[in-house]
Design a protein that fits this description.
heterodimer; A: mainly alpha; two-stranded antiparallel ribbon; 6 strands; B: alpha/beta; Rossmann fold; 3 domains; six-stranded mixed beta sheet; binds adenosine-5'-triphosphate; binds magnesium ion
Chain lengths: 334, 507
């Protein structure tokens, strides 16, 4: 297990080393924004940042769920498929005339139950989360096509009205209700991680599952809970995506699990578990979103450059984490 | 007239692991207000008894009663809730969490479900202060040494209002002062009527603190005795089932000191140091010489070892092996120069739990040869068999996962791993920690044999008697500085050594 320890000295101020990755990501975000503002006219406005939120609210929510899982040292590859399944379910049920509230409720329950199932299998059968959620990924994607193979448009009037609503923030600035939903999820999740026993148990299991067990922590319950949370977040992300797309489709959110994992890692959370912050994940999502924005401002660059940048960034961040954790000095002494 | 009622009673406990009967019809009882020592060799079943009691493992047969009521715990959590607080062998904490959290996690102070961090930190400081520890409770646990982590584990266990406190080898990585503090706490708890189960391989500690003892041998009960009725020699006899001659037969090493002085220097460190870890020191180890490193925990003993082995980078100074200047950037480079380092922290740095005893044994040798030159199976078998026998590793089954071995036997496997390399310099960092009296003597004998055969040994141990018994020369460390280098001659006694450590060599 790797842990980040010690303190770093910067200009007389000492910063606990565990905060460094988050600070680096924050610095990166600011630098990218500044560079964009210099290079492109009309970039350096608040709305550009808000648009990143608007365009990535669903990813934000999914990445929050992913953060819980990764903090325990697990991984959830099924999130993209569960997102797609959720858009599909929502579209079909709305087409069949279900009331909006019932649809939302059902979608959320389905997502949570899928997560619960995967969590239970991971824990009780002691199977690698990678394998279990890979199976879950195929399962959920497959289920989409048993519902329908084509894209299903969403035309429910109250649903579309909500989807197109904007919330003015004064000035020329605005956001969508999805952004509010995303931020609420972030705040609640951050509270859970920092101020509840569940949250601390998540960190403990990521530190050492064996120790957590011997310390008398409810390991089974916690592990199953994180996958349930991730399933729930994926379903909620799926709903936000169906607001954004106004359709349900089995090919929505292909590869989103990787975006979510990338956001979490760029946000400074260790893939081995036990170390990381939700704020980092938010910054990770923002960095990913800003890369897309910059590339669209550039105009001539193909969108594949987004992937290349994200790939490069991931390398840099994983290297950075290794450097920080390798340079722990004076940790042992006898 | 009659004895008080036991708070805990275990009867006819059986526990079968695949291939080993770890417990066979064991009875055990614990009285309130007593310290009860559980004694036995490595692999006798002490930790297993503790684990079946606290629900880590299920029992195959037998009954457990707590305060007269039959119980069967589903796990450590349930045992804790019933008032049994346990420190398991090896530190079982989460190094990524803060010190305060490690003490409180699972029972953090809350208000309306919200954790009260401030209360938690304050309480943690108070509890640690009662153990004479002054730590930054919001720093992560991994910033502290094994000994401090051990104390934190103890703080966690004594923090709750338990009826039964179980300590499985809590003192293995503590120095004398810390052991005294722990004993102070234990005595206080005892007066409050708490029943304490204590495991240790240090017989002196057992006789100092315990009132009663239960001896196990090979998973069976030998008997229960009052400590004052059972002299030490008899206890050892009961533990190992024969008289212990090995310790006595080890002749004094001191006579040989002068002779070793003449041998060629093997490893010479000149002004070697690393800022923040250890101040520059100079040190010469000759062929066939045993150099002891003495000093308190945190005095820099492990740092010296790590620098010599290239596990940490030196900030200053030079190192020569066999007269040739070398720069050891990695442990691999050190291994190429035939240096070997058996580290003190076997849990984090040593064993690979998923692999078998054979694989763990062969690991360093294979790594030294490079992965392209596999060791023939027959050669493997031969080596493995030889070292399992030499160190009396039990069970003597090379294909068992090492995680299934008792703590002391894992330690022996680690030691064997480095012995197989036939190093020119063997660095042993606390090699006898957690090892029973019989095996301890075996290991000491082995060190003597190695040194007679021309191998140089750097021997680090918190037990001064052991250092004195084995070493030709002794380097004393204090506050991360090498303060003295003494010849182990007739005049040197444990007291003199303690004095040097305490005074820092100024006399
Ligand atoms: N999980 C397991 N699976 C299989 N065998 C085990 C397991 N745990 C312990 N054993 C075996 O049970 C026996 C008793 O081990 P135990 O750990 O109780 O010894 P111990 O008395 O605590 O020794 P030590 O002083 O070395 O800690 C040993 O032979 C060991 O190899
Ligand atoms: Mg044990």
């Amino acid at each position: 297990m790797t842990t980040l320890t010690g303190r770093l000295r910067i200009g007389g101020q000492t910063i606990p080393r565990k905060y460094v990755p988050v600070l680096v990501t924050a610095g990166l975000f600011v630098a990218m924004f500044a560079a964009g503002s210099v290079r492109y006219e009309a970039f350096g406005t608040g709305q550009v940042i808000l648009n990143v939120f608007v365009d990535n609210a669903f990813l934000l929510v999914v990445a929050v769920g992913m953060t819980f899982v990764i903090l325990t040292g697990g991984i959830d590859l099924s999130v993209g498929s569960v997102v797609a399944l959720s858009t599909m379910l929502a579209a079909v049920l709305l087409r069949d005339g279900w009331p909006v509230v019932a649809v939302i409720g059902l979608v959320l329950v389905v997502g949570a139950v899928l997560g619960l199932g995967m969590g239970a299998i991971v824990h009780y059968f002691e199977i690698q989360p990678f394998i279990v959620t890979l199976a879950g990924m195929f399962l959920a994607r497959g289920l989409c096509y048993t519902i329908a193979t084509d894209s299903i448009p969403i035309t429910d009037p109250s649903f579309t009205a909500f989807a197109q609503a904007t919330i003015p923030l004064g000035g020329e600035l605005w956001i969508t209700p999805s952004v509010v939903a995303g931020l609420v999820v972030v705040v609640v999740a951050a509270y859970v991680l920092h101020y509840t026993r569940l949250g601390r148990n998540v960190y403990a299991i990521g530190g050492s599952e064996q120790s957590a067990l011997l310390m008398g922590l409810p390991v089974a319950r916690t592990k199953i809970a994180v996958y349930t949370i991730s399933g729930f977040c994926s379903a909620l992300g799926g709903l936000l995506l169906s607001f954004y797309m106004l359709s349900g489709y089995g090919l929505h959110a292909v590869g989103m699990e990787l975006d979510a994992i990338a956001a979490v890692v760029i946000g400074g959370t260790l893939l081995t578990g036990g170390s990381g912050y939700l704020l980092g994940t938010v910054l990770g999502v923002l960095v990913l979103g800003l890369i897309q924005t910059i590339i669209s401002f550039e105009g001539t660059l193909s969108s594949w450059w987004t992937k290349i940048f994200i790939g490069a960034l991931l390398f840099v961040f994983i290297l950075l984490q290794r450097l920080i954790s390798a340079r722990r000095t004076g940790a042992r002494s006898t | 007239m009659t004895e008080p009622v036991p708070i805990l009673q275990m009867r006819g406990i059986d526990k079968q692991f695949p291939g080993v009967k770890a417990l066979d019809g064991v009875d055990f009882r614990l009285f309130p207000g007593e310290v009860h020592a559980l004694m036995g060799e490595n692999g006798a079943g002490k930790s297993t008894l503790i684990k079946v009691l606290t629900g880590v493992y299920d029992i195959d047969a037998g009954a457990i009663e707590l305060e007269g009521r039959p119980v069967a715990f589903s796990g450590p959590l349930a045992a804790q809730q019933a008032g049994i607080s346990t420190v398991y062998q090896e530190v079982n904490l989460c190094a990524n969490l803060s010190v305060a959290e490690n003490i409180f996690i699972g029972r953090e102070p809350r208000r309306f479900g919200r954790l009260q961090w401030r209360v938690m930190r304050r309480e943690a400081e108070r509890i640690l202060a009662s153990l004479d520890l002054d730590l930054d409770v919001s720093a992560s646990l991994s910033a502290y040494s094994l000994a401090v982590q051990q104390m934190v584990a103890i703080a966690r266990a004594v923090q709750v209002d338990a009826k039964v406190l179980i300590l499985d080898e809590p003192t293995s990585s503590l120095d004398a002062g810390e052991v005294e503090r722990l004993f102070g706490v234990m005595r206080r708890l005892k007066e409050q009527g708490i029943a304490i189960l204590f495991v240790s391989h240090f017989l002196d500690q057992i006789y100092e603190i315990s009132d009663r003892m239960t001896v196990l041998r090979n998973g069976t009960l030998v008997g229960e005795y009052l400590t004052r009725d059972l002299p030490q020699v008899e206890l050892v006899g009961k533990m190992i089932g024969r008289e212990l001659a090995a310790l006595e037969s080890l002749e004094d090493r001191r006579a040989a000191a002068e002779q070793a002085d003449a041998a060629a220097p093997l490893v010479e460190a000149d002004g070697l140091g690393r800022p923040g870890a250890i101040e520059p020191f100079s040190l010469t180890v000759r062929e066939g010489e045993v150099l002891g490193l003495a000093g308190l925990l945190g005095s820099g003993r492990t740092e010296v070892a790590r620098l010599l082995f290239g596990a940490d980078h030196a900030g200053s100074g030079t190192l020569r092996v066999g007269g040739v200047p070398v720069r050891l950037r990695t442990p691999r480079a050190a291994v190429r120069h035939k240096l070997a380092y058996c580290s003190e922290d076997r849990r984090a740095e040593g064993i690979i739990p998923e692999l078998t005893v054979r694989e763990n044994l062969i690991l360093a040798l294979q790594a030294a040869r490079g992965w392209t030159r596999p060791i023939a199976r027959r050669k493997q078998d031969e080596l493995v068999e030889r070292y399992i026998k030499a160190l009396d590793i039990r069970p003597a089954d090379p294909d068992r996962p090492i995680a299934n071995l008792s703590g002391g036997n894992q330690q022996k496997v680690l030691l064997a791993r480095w012995l197989i390399l036939q190093p020119r310099l063997l660095i042993l960092d606390e090699p006898t920690r957690g090892i029973d009296v019989g095996a301890k003597a075996e290991i000491q004998r082995l060190v003597v044999e190695l040194s007679d055969g021309g191998t140089a040994v750097l021997f680090i141990s918190a037990e001064l008697e052991e250092v004195l018994r084995l070493s030709h020369k002794i380097a004393v460390l204090r506050d991360r500085r090498m303060v003295a280098e003494l010849d182990n001659d007739e005049q040197l006694t444990t007291d003199a050594l303690t004095e040097t450590i305490a005074s820092g060599g100024r006399s």
